[in-house]
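hiii so my PI (J.) wants the whole complex modelled not just the main chain, which honestly fair. so below is everything: two entries, each one labled with what it is. i double checked the lines twice but i was tired so who knows lol
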Amino acid sequence: MKRVVITGMGIWSCLGKSLGEVCESLYNGKSGIVLDPLRKEMGFRSGLTAKVDVPDLKGVLSRSQRAYMPEQAKYAYCATVEALRNARIDQDYLDTHDVGLLYGNDSAVEPAVRAVDTIREKRDTTLCGSGAIFQSMNSTVTMNLGTIFHLRGINLTVSGACASGAHAIGLGALLIQTGLQDMVVCGGAQEVNPFSVGSFDGISAFSVREDAPEKASRPFDRDRDGLVPGGGAATVIIEEYEHAVRRGAPILAEILGYGFSSNGEHISSPNVEGPSKSLRMAIERTGIQIDEIGYINAHATSTHVGDTNEAKAIYNVFGDRKIEVTSTKSQTGHEMWMAGASEIIYSMLMMKNDFIAANLNFENPDEDSAKLLIPNRRVEKHFDTFLSNSFGFGGTNATLVVRNIK
Amino acid sequence: MEKSEIIKKVNAVLAEEFEVEESIITPEANIKKTLQLDSLSLVDMVVLIESEFGVKIQPAELVKVQTFEALYDYLAEKL
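here's the output for the full assembly
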């Protein structure tokens, strides 16, 4: 099997619009969560959300290109520009090689809502405009990135609920391991508009701690009351090791293991067995000793059952080993389709800069989180290998293990 | 609406939407060529005209509207 390395990263999130900004926010424990008055006007149970600015791409992309892009495709474009630049990939390279594209995305609600509103009001489908169809398809991110960057390898959206981004990276790694691709642009994107999470709010999944938005996302804390929706996009350029060496690319880290499983049970409530299986599979595929893992980036979203069962799964696999476990969702909220990719980048930034960001708002453990080492303050620590969990509705699980390359 | 008003408004909204200099819009110029419209962005021109003037250019009529002059005349007739 060929080795798979990370050679570039880029991000657009509530913590910043570049790797540098995001790293600083992680280091300083900044929260990206705000209260959105519009959501309250719309009848939301919770008006909490991450605040993500939509990039203005006028003058950067043509009018037609922009017309086909919903907000998450714009986030993904910016993240991908940064990732390609950091990987030292220019347009000439993309035009002359079969670079693949696997990106996580699992909704495109706002454009669909607007198109349906137009049809209902005007009773004329033409008035939806040319962009509506391309904006409202689930594959909108990959169709836009593929055409803008002239990508010529695999081109596919991965929809695995809140594990979409992690599965995209894991599947991309498999394509490279088996020699089918030398390079794949991987990532995850998430729309942030209110329409996209209205029905999610409707099942009482969100925190209602509106008086203190920065305290609302509190993974593993005993008094957590639900997740906070977030979004943006994160891009990771993955590449076959020898290929990266040949072109003199910056080799940042190696993807050692990808584990996956499906719970096969409840549509929203996770179990313990499925995540445990995904964790074990990822670790076994690395061929390393479990003690070499120096940090765990948990999926933990700040919901009761989700965090509890993940804590149990981590304890099942790691036992009493005291490895720092944190959820960066305490700062970002739940970035859903993007999370599996962004959390690889957050973990990479921490690994490259010798710290572990605080699990904000972890004030009191519950019975299960008490068994884990969850720092609520930043830890200055060098580590060379981390594990990142991503779990999603329908019981889909993904785990990635990444090792530093200096 | 006076034709001169139509011309002024059409030129302004099309130049802004399709990001071209208004000065390149002349009565005899071809709309698609001048605004660099393909079959998709032509749909957006129809949407724009409908939202600005309340006039929907029907597909069968759209093929006849090749120049800006033809568009001004079309709108003058409908308004």
